[in-house]
Structures are given as structure tokens and as C-alpha cells.
Amino acid sequence: MHYDDIANSPQNPIQGKVFNTIGGDDVYHDVPKDYVGKDVTAANFMKILSGQDMTGVGSGKTIKSDSNSNIFVYFADHGSVGLIAMPVGGYLYAKDMYHTISTMHENNKYKELVWYIEACESGSMADRMGYEKLNAYVTTASNPHVSSYACDYDSRVKTYLNDCWSRNFLVDTETSDLNSKTFLQQFEILKQKTTESPACAYGDLTIQSEVLANFMTWKQAARAPQNSPSVSVSDSRVSSRNVMEDMLMRRVEESANSLSAKAELKKFYEDAAKADIIYGAFAHALDVNTKPSNADDKCHTASALNHDCIKAATIAHNEVCGEYTEYSFKYSSYIAKACSTHDANAITQEFNKICSVVRI
């Protein structure tokens, strides 16, 4: 699944092409398009993973697995505490994904499952969920509290090409012998190279002793290691929460005729100001602690998150306040914090009051 909104985006200065290394080759032309656009939803993702009938949707392909199957899942998108975003429809919530994998486990749909997640606060998708009971290993770009980071700003296409953790994962995989590299070895490499956000591991950690080839294959190419001059990386990196602002500011600086870019940046700051008002009022009303939580390399929360409350309150928020913007997504963690001391109804009532006056 991929939304397929990059290659032919009006904002892409090199139409029809996608790059993931600075000065690198196009990586778009051979990408499968089983599920794109409107079909890239949380519901479809879970159906495909669990092998349900997808007739009439996309290519119709689904994972027909059994008790002897090893399944590898890689997911990259925005995220927050207790959820990861999808380009269409509602979010993919931690409780729903766990239920899907738990049901697969009960129905002997796999032998072992490995899930790599690139998203902000991605550790919250697996921490204290119980994946160790499901023969499932989950590794994440960040812990339950910290944003992931974008890397490699490319002036050719005027955007960041990668998330830092994903870049490190892909380069290590492409340049490794999959028959000898273990998941533990790869995890330690990603943890060392990804200095911006703390990589974490959850679930059945005995799977870390297995080699990557048990779960993935790779058409070995003569690609140089990451520190080779032929694989260009840059020192540019920014919190995923701040990518839009960073790009708009760069567009203003780089554009010869920056009137439209300035207008976009002005609109961005106007919307940001509204968001600051909404979530500032919410935090004040429910006495939400807005200070960063354990912003270090700890991979676990002090106590289990209230995932039922997070889902119910987030759905209610989106109905009354509108869906999060690139900027306001950073405030979505306030719901998880509020859920530690309030129920979903109280949170919903507060959003009803605030967003009847201010709405993004």
C-alpha cells in the first residue's frame, strides 16, 4: 500500500520521479500499485494483513498465510500516542492493530510476525500491549513520547527525502547479507545511527536472534555503504512535526518570486495560532501536563495507556474540531495525557465547548 501522491504532485519539480537519496536515481518506476489513493485506509490495511477477501478493491491481493508463515510489516506515516495516521479515513489505533494481530495469532495465520514502524511516538503502538504473547516482534523509530525526524533535504525536489530511522534501516538492509545479519544486530545499528529519536524494541525479543532472511528477501544490488560518497546523505534533519514549516520557510528563501510562498507561510502561521488557542485552552481546562514526557531513550511509559479512551476521544475530536493539520498533530498527545485522569466523555465535552468558538 502507498498513497502514491509524490511522483505526480504539482509540488514535485521533477514530475513522475521519486528519489530517496540526494543525487540518486528514480525509485518510482517499478513500485507496485496494489492499493493506492482512496484504498489506503486503516480498515483495508488490517484486512489485507489478516488475509480477508479484497475482491473489488485495488488489485485484490491479500496475505494468504498459515501457521508456517513468517510475516514482515513495514509502516511509515505520521503518528501520535496510541495511533498512526493513514492518508484516507480514520487513524490506525494501537488497540485495533493489536486486536488484528491477536486474532491472526489465534487463527494460526502466522508462525512469527515482525513489524517495523516509522512514525512519531511510534513506541506507543507496542509498549505494554502484549505482543510478547503473540510471537510478534515490533521495532520503532521512536519511543512513546518523542517525534521521529526527517532527513536529507534535497534542493532538487525541495523536500526531505527520508525519515532518518527508515533511511538507516533501508541502507543497512540493502548493504547487508540477509542470511547472516540478525534483527538484534540491525536494531543496534539503527539505535546507534538514529541519534535524533530513540529507537525501541518490543514484544517477543527472542526473534531478534533470527536472521533477516527468515522474513525478507532482497535483490542484492551493488550499492555502497551509507558512508560511501556514492550514497549522498546530508546533515539536514528536522522533527517530523516541523517539516511543513521548515519547507515553507525554505521555499520563501529559495524562490525568486516568493509571493505565493509567503502567502502559504502566512496561512500556516494563522492556522498554527488557532491551534495554539484550541489546545492551550483544552490543556488548561483539563489540567493536562504539557511538559515533555520522558524525552530520553526510555522505551516504556510509567503505566499502560488508556487506549479505549484515546480512540474514542480522538474520533470525537476530529468530528467537532476537525482533523489535525501538519502543525496541530503535535497536540494530539494531549488526548492521551488527558485520558490518564478523565474519561472520553469529559474530553469530548471540553472539545465541544472550545471548538464551537474556534475551529481550524
Q: What would you note in describing this structure?
A:
- There is one protein chain.
- This protein has about 350 residues and is an alpha+beta fold.
- It contains nine helices and ten strands.
- It has helices spanning about 40-50, 95-105, 165-175, 185-195, 245-255, 260-285, 305-320, 335-340, 345-355, and strands spanning about 70-75, 80, 85, 90-95, 110-120, 135-140, 150-155, 160-165, 200-205, 235-240.
- The strands form three sheets. A four-stranded mixed β-sheet has the order 1-5-6-9, with no helix packed on it. The protein has a three-stranded antiparallel β-sheet with strand order 2-3-4. It has a three-stranded antiparallel β-sheet with strand order 8-7-10.
- A hairpin with a 4-residue loop joins strand 7 (about 150-155) and strand 8 (about 160-165).
- The longest helix is centred in the last third of the chain and has 27 residues, at about 260-285.
- The radius of gyration is 21 Å and the shape is globular.
